[in-house]
Structure formats: structure tokens, C-alpha cells
Amino acid sequence: MRQFLAIGTSVPRQEASEKVTGIAKYTNDINTTGLLHVKMVTSSCAHGTIVSIDTSKARKAPGVRAVLTGRDFPILTGSPLADRPPIAIDKVRYHGEPVAVVVADQEYQAMNAAKLVDVAYHPLPVVNSPTEAIRSQAPLVHENLASYKRFEAVYPVPGTNIANHVKIRKGDMQKGWAESDVAIEASFSIPQSDHAAMETRCATAEIKPNGRVEIYSASQSPYVIRDMLSLFFSIDPSQIVVHTPLVGGAFGGKAPVQLEFIAYLASKAVGGRKVKLVNSREEDFITSPVHIGLDAKVKLGATKQGKIVAAEITYLFDGGAYSDRAAIITRAAAQDCTGPYRIDNVHCDSFCMYTNHPYATSFRGFGHPELTFVIERAMDILAARLNLDPLTLRRQIAIGPGDTTPTQTVLTTSNVGNLAQCIDKLKEIIRWNDEPQVVVEGHKVRTKGVSCFWKNSSTPTDAGAGAVLLLNRDGSARLVCGAVEIGQGTKTVLSQIVAERMKMNVDQIYVEMEVNTDTCPEHWKTVASRSTLLVGRAALAAADDAIRQLRHIASVVLGCSADHLEIGFGRVYQKDNPQIGVQISEIAHGYRLPNGNTIGSQVIGRGSYTMRDLTSLDPETGKGNPGPEWGVGAQAVEVEFDTKDLTYRVVRASAVIDAGKVMNPKAARGQMTGGMSMGLSFASREAFLYNKAGIIQNPRFRTYKDHRYGDHPEYLVDFVETPHLEAPYGLRGIGEHGVIGMPAALANSLSLATGIAMNRLPLTPEAIWREKKENTGDSFRF
Amino acid sequence: MIPFDFEYYKATSIPEAIYLFQNLFLQGRNPLYYGGGTEIITLARTNRIYTEAVIDIKGIPECNVFAHHDHKLLVGSAVTLTRVSEERLFPLLSRTCSEAADQTARNKITVGGNICGRIIFREAVLSFLLADSDILIAGPSGINKKPIHEIFKQRMRLQRGEFVVQVHTDTDYTKLPFIAVKKRRIGSVGYPVVTIAAMKKEQLVRVAFSGVCAFPFRSHQIETILNDRLTPLETRIERAVRHLPAPLLSNTDASAEYRAFVLKNTLLDVLTALEEV
Prior knowledge:
The structure holds 2 protein chains of 2 kinds. Chain A is of the alpha+beta class. Chain A has 3 domains: 16-23 and 463-610, Aldehyde oxidase/xanthine dehydrogenase, molybdopterin binding domain (Aldehyde Oxidoreductase, domain 4); 31-124 and 198-249 and 254-286, Aldehyde Oxidoreductase, domain 3; 290-459 and 615-776, Aldehyde Oxidoreductase, domain 4. Chain A contains 19 helices and 32 strands. In chain A, the strands form 8 sheets. Chain A has an 8-stranded mixed β-sheet, sandwiched between helices. In chain A, strands 7-16-15-14-8 form a 5-stranded mixed β-sheet. In chain A, strands 18-19-30-31-32 form a 5-stranded mixed β-sheet. The termini of chain A are far apart. By secondary structure, chain B is of the alpha+beta class. Chain B has 3 domains: 7-56, Uridine Diphospho-n-acetylenolpyruvylglucosamine Reductase, domain 2, CATH 3.30.43; 61-173, Uridine Diphospho-n-acetylenolpyruvylglucosamine Reductase, domain 3 (2-Layer Sandwich); 176-275, CO dehydrogenase flavoprotein, C-terminal domain (Enolase-like, domain 1). Helix content of chain B is 33%, strand content 25%. In chain B, the strands form 4 sheets. Chain B has a 5-stranded antiparallel β-sheet with strand order 4-5-10-6-7. In chain B, helix 9 (220-226) packs antiparallel against helix 10 and helix 10 crosses helix 11 (256-275). In chain B, 47% of the residues are buried. The A-B interface holds A 107-108, 111-112, 115, 280, 282, 644-645, 647, 684-685, 689, 697-698, 702-703, 705, 707-708, 710-711, 764-766, 769-770, 779-782 and B 1-4, 45-47, 102, 183, 185-191, 234, 237-238, 251-255, 258, 260-262, 264-266, 268.
């Protein structure tokens, strides 16, 4: 018998046909009778006091039911730090911030009335970068930082723009510097950009006459929406239900709670009627939270042989006007700051800075693409200084079992993937040893740049998930769980996990697509590449529970002990004599006796799982165990650079990732290439452009560049499999991983091609031109 | 969503379109002629344009002509950029039109709409500037043919109620050696940092630009400088760039300084290629 029936096969996604035919329903497809529409009035000023808001004309406009301002419901929301009013109160802190909200019968009426709200601002000096924000004379974005409520470990510094300060103190820096033969130092910068999901964010809210609150939202975190509404508006959580249908791309941007608060307030203002709030593309770009920016400094000390003995790293994250998840990203970057390398002496200060930019939240990779850009550029600079092959240097200090992480967690063969194996395989697929790293042909230069990475999550110590498996009469089954389908294909992988355990045909396992927080067992949230671990373990437990019940019923029917029974291929049968058995369809709802009575009843498997052995990080040293496992990978980017006009083309992008177990090869490849495309896109071209007043110049796709269909290089993707023993079938999360090493690999490739350290994103030809001009004074042919 | 109501009229003849416009204008409806609609939709949804009536000219037969006739190439104003790109009746025009916007938009954008639009790049006009084309304009005073250099100065100078019916180009021009280069910030879709369209006629190079300044242009002064073949090419280019009709554009696609770099290098490539022809 084959070991794997469903695992390791390219099962098509359960929702594929709905999506490709266009009938799949998303949150904004909800249009019920009597639905009212909400439109936001957003700030045209990046930092200023609100002198006045005149809503009188808007209130008189046709169809208008209510106009709200922040003063109407003066509360502060946000987690870990409650620093954000859902609608600005007295002051605006970023361009695009909601300042008023209009509720009207029709969407166009709300849009027209929103134009009539007259807001006067008194502009304040703008904090336009995290580096500006940390200066002692910088204007304060938040004057009352000390008074904000805290819900998780977070260390703001009142009187400054520091929303969180995370420290890593490992080993002895003095000793490290003393042992160093060489030291390198460099600065890096990544601008804020956007997730640019195809579906813009959308939420509906309704407050029923009995007080029950019903929310629909395009969200990665339906249970968090419920809990946050309960927390900030003092509603019994059992009175709140959140529905999440299919989500049209999220990439971390739909993990925070924002529009839901505004929709709830809007519904409240119109007597609880159902309202819908959908972002325009422009609002989705800047009003809702964005991809975090970063200014960073790194200093590495190493021996001549290439052993890194000291690492000193400072991160200034551009968290924007409100801290939200940026405060946790600040911690995530610190905890893995060294990259996947053995370094005994580490000193890292990671700051989440307030600026007058849109506020930042999780983005695919959660701080890891950013930390990887910094450390992997530094690794290439070090390799060049030591005159070592960049992959040889990386391989000889690749972290592994027995080593400790920056947070001093001891690694095992299970909690970290095999980086050396990834590097070896990458070398093969990119012909590293067969071709030179730099090839010059006329005015074209071809170069290969590499990057390794690791990724752990910043998971709450009690993060968990549940699953229920309901057997149908015909022996098929339905899995109900709280994971959101955001395009990542988790639900299909879950069907494979259950099918494998029950030795069933995978198309007999249907996974409910919509999440309903009332009826689906709770799942932390669909983030951090952890759904296949958390929900996967819960689903396995549910399958085991169902198997136990089936064997029990079958044992009565067959008149033998349950211990003698095995399940598989639609039957329960005797281990030593498979001829003797009963069809699952005959017992799934109890075995029917000739007189109509049944033995047993419907089989309903239940299972749940909670993270084990995680600890919070020590505030002074960062010591602790932040997440369940470190996934690793090695990536490469080959570019063709034109020395005449300074343009370039990405020829090939490659990745070898330790997947633990490749559950669904085509889906895994899709996840990797999608991530790689996203990484290349934000590294090469994505950036919000601010003027001196902090106003965003490009909040639309005409001027905000991202990867388009014709921009793709050739993708090479391969996997190694080092099982994570805690996870179903040994799998490791891979949802974010493709993106992580791409910016660094691209920058390393271009640095080689141009002969100039490309340490600032995005890597546009204009950026290359500017660096060349600044570094060489070379105005080129002209 | 477009937050205001407007009426849609589809004219099937030139007089009908003119009549509709005048009538709607007198009713204070602020009518607009409607080609592909991409710009009207874009500007309307962000409240930068307001109208209560649009008059679609795509049903007017004259506006859909795309053919050689009597030693002229006639391009109807309602012909889409996709059609111009695919039916290569004027290869230079096909080339520049195929680089504007993206495929989905080009399926809608019309030649007339691109030339008359508010978006400052209007790359379809470059070929016509080079070919000294004539523009056939319909308006309350009838149908008039005007040289493009008279009617297009930075933008189309149309009177109220007028619209472009056709562009007429001598067939000879459609057969001349040419080169067209579009340089973007990055990637294969987007506004130009620099677009240069050039052709060679009787040993002289003609050059038209988009993206360089805040409007497309062709400059006889620049052409005179560039055709002075006794002077080294790089010197000619340096001189030409000092004689731009307006300051270099600086926007989210490129700073003015970087634009100068791209402009000079692209000119060098274009002229080198054309001088060898």
C-alpha cells in the first residue's frame, strides 16, 4: 500500500471552478434590500489639527442618513497599543486618514455627500521618515503615548516617536569585536509600499434589534474582529458574529481590524441598519494600512575565515501614524535579525517609529523580507571583503541543530529546516559552479545574486485552531474550520490531510469555504504561514476522532473488538482479514438495523490544537521562543543589466525552500512563484512617493508601479524536505517564503552588475543612475 | 463608481453629433464627446470632470475609417489604438500606439480620444506631427481641414462643440524610415519617462517627443540643431536639450534630472540608428 494517497499530489483547489468562471462571491458582492452605504471623508493633510468639520451641507444632501465624526464616538483602538481612533479626533496624523463618515441610501449619494463635508486643518510639521522620527527635536506624532492602553508586550517610549523598542542581547559584543579581523558597516532603506490585493477591503455591519452584531468582512482575522469589537465597544462576544467569504488576496493587509470598526459605528448611527463600506482603490492604498518601511544600519565583525563573531543591527521601522501590527513586526525582525546564520554575539535594537505616513501592518513575510534584505546585502558585502564565494560563506555558517537563535532558542532537527541542503540544491539549479557569477557581453552584463533566509512566526503562546469533521450518509465528509481562503489554497491542503488520514478519496472531503465565527471552531487568524500547522493538526485530531467513532460502530456491527479494525477506501475492515468489513456509508449516520433502529448516530469528529512551548521574549535580552519552527531557503536572481542606459531585465528567479513535506506540488510551486513575483515587484518598483508635506503622490495604479503580466522572469522552484515533527506529515509553512529573499537577491545581483552597493529600495533604473552619480560622480555618457 | 448621473447619446452622423452638442450645451448640460471613454471614466470617478451628457461618436461612419485613399492615409478618430497597432497601415503610428496604456485600455482608447485627451502624453499625436498631417474637424461652422501644426499646440486647440473626425496623412510619410522608443520608469506598462518618435525624410531627421515636457511636441529648432551633421552628435544632442520648449517634466515617473539623462541617451540611440539608414 502506498504511504501517501492524497499528500504529495497536485489536487486542484476546491474553489477553482468558482473563481475561474467568475461566480465566486466576495464580501462586496453582498447586496441586500435596505442596505445602506458608507463613504469616508479622508484627510488631505498629513499632520495637522482639525480646526473644524462642517457637516451641515452633507447632512442635507439627498439620501443621507447620518454623518459621523471622531468626536461622536471618542475611543481609541488598536493592538498591541490602543493609539488609533477609528475616525480622527482633533488631529490627523496621515494623508488619507478617515476624518468623517457619511451613511446614505445609495453609494453615489454617500460619495456626493462626502464631497460636501468641509474640514479645516491647521498644518503641523511633518515627520516624513523613521530616521527623522527618532531625532530628538522631531515633532511628536502622539503627544499622549504614555496614556495608551497596552494589550500585548509592547514598549513605547513616551515623549518620543518610539511606539515599540525591542532589544536582542546575546553573547558578549566586546569579545566579538575583539575576535574580528574585519568589520563591515552599511545602511539600508526600504520605503513603505502596498499589498495591492486585487480585492479592495470591504466590510458590512448590522446591529439587530436584540443587540446582535453581524459583520461580513474581507478579512484574515474574523475571530479577532469579534474580539476587538467586544473589547472596544463592550459587547458580549457571543452577541457578535463575523462572516468571511472568499477573500480576493490579502498578503497580510487584511489581518488588522479597521473598516469593521467604522462600519459598526456607521450602523449604530442609523439605528443598527445594515451598512456596507468598501474601499476605493485609492483608499485601499493609503487609508487602510500599508506595507511597512525600514531604515537600518548593520555592522558585522568576522574572522578572516568567514566566521561572523559580532553583529550589531539597528532597525527603524516606518510604522506610520499608528502602531498596529508594526509594533509586532518590529519584534519579528529583531528575533530573526541575524538571518539563518550562526552568530554568537548579537546586539539588536529594533524600533517601531511613528511617522506621518499611512500606518503599517503585516505584509507577507512579516518583517522577514525587510530583515533579510538588510542582512543578506551585508553578507554579500562581507563576502566581497573576505574574498569568499558568497554561497560558500553562507553555507559554512548556515545555522542548524545545536545552534542558538538571536533569542537564544536551541535549534533541533525538527524546529529548523536544512539550509545547507537548500544551498546545495540551489547551486545545482542555477549552475553556480558551471558559470561565472558575472558575464559581460558588450554593454550587457549578466549577474547572479543570491540570498538565504529563514522565517519563524511571532505567534501568541496560546494560538490555536479547531476543526469539526461531519460525515455525510454516503461516506463523504465535510470539514468545518476557521481558516480563511485568501487564495493560498489552505482549504484544499486540509482536505488532503483529512483524506490521507482516513485513506479516503480527496474529492470526498469538502471544506466549507466561508468562515462563520458562530459555527466554525475558532482559529487564531489566517496569517504567518501557520494555518496548515494549526488547523491541520486540529483536522487530523478531528479525523482521528471520527475514525474512533467509526471503528466503534463497526465493531458492534462486525462483532469484534475495535482494536482489530482498520479504516480505508470507504470501508472499516478487519486488519487480519480485510474481506470482513462494512462500508462507511452504512455506518456514517449509524448502522441501520432491519427494524429501522440504528446502532450509533452521525459521526462527528472534533479536534483542536494549541501551540506548544512558546514563550514571550525577555524585554531586556529578547530571550525566549517566539514561534514553532524556522523555515529556511536559498534564492537567486539573475539579471541582465544594460551599462548604457542603466536599465535591467530579471532573466531568472530561483528558489529552493525546505517545505518539510510538499503537500501539493503545483500549489506549492504556485505559492513560491507568486511570492517571488511579489518580492521582485516591491524590490524593483513599488514605493509610495511622498512630497515634503507627507502627501502621497501615487495612490493609484497609473502611477504606483507593480509587476504586470509581461514582467515575469523564468521561475525555477525546488524543495527539500526536512520534517517538522510537530506538524501534519512534517510540513512547514511556505505561504510567505517565496517573497523573503527576492529583494536581497535582486539587490545583490544589481550591486554586482553596477559595481555599486544598491542598498536602497526600490531598485529602479533611476535609483541606479542616482547611486552611480552620487558614488562615482560619473554622469555617464552625458 | 461615477457618483453623478449623465445621459448617453450615440450619434450616427456628423450633423447629428454637432446638433446634439449644441442642444445639450444650451440646456447647460456640459456635454462631452465620447470616444473610448477611458479618460471620462477615470476623471469622473475621482471628481475631476463633470458632465450631464456624453455624445458617443463611435457610430459615425467617417470616424471609423482606417484606410489608404487617394494617396492619403485616413485615420478615423474613433479607431482604437488596438486596431491601429494591429493593422499596420502606418508602421510608426502602430508602434507608438501599441506602447500607450495597456492592452485592455488600448482596446477602448481611440486615436481621437488620445490626441484630444487631458492626459499629457498623447503619444498618438507624435506620428502625425512628424508627417505634417491634416486634421479634419467637425463643428458648428461645418467641416474643416487644418494642418496639425496649426491646431495642435501643446494640445488640440478645438473650439467648443468641435470634434476630430479624421487625420489625413500623405501616404509617402507612412513609408519613410522611422524609429520609435518609449522609456518608462520600469516595466512594460506605464507613462513615458521619454518617448521619441523619429523619421527620416530626404536625409533630414524629424523628431517628436512625449514625456519630456508637460506636453508632446515637435520643434523645428531642435531638428535644425540635430541635423547639423558637421557637429559631433553628442554636442548636437547637448545643444538640442538646451532648446526644449519648456522645462523638463518632473513627476512620479522620473525627476527632471534623470529625464535629461534618459532623453540624451535615447536621442543618441535614435539618431545613431537613423543616420545609418
